[in-house]
Amino acid sequence: MAELTLIVGHPGAGKTTRAKALAAETGAVRLTPDDWLVPLFAHPVPDGKRDVVESRLIRTATAILRAGGSAILDFGFWGRDELAGRYTLPPPPEGWRRWIAGRWPTALDGAEPDVTRRTRDRD
User: Fold this and answer.
1) Structure pTM?
2) Which of 19, 40, 62, 97 lies in the 20 to 30 Å Cα band around 114?
């Protein structure tokens, strides 16, 4: 069955790592603007180009889905306009690590103390 997965999260949260693992596990095609922006424009965030690339990747994902395949959009979706309609309920402070581990069992394995602190303090 065709499936579309959207990878959502803050910069440095492990989105791409998870998207790559998910693609390997499921055979879905991972589409990310990060693979295109530097090769095409010699800059990771060229003015006005990210939206163009993301639009093309969404069209590509649509074609993959129509053909019966699965796709992963590894965009992050963390721009101000993209986040405007969301509401996140934070986990209780004492349970943040357990909450993350329940969602992504290996997310913080081997993480440096600074990474776990920043993850805990985020938002």
Assistant:
1) 0.63
2) 19
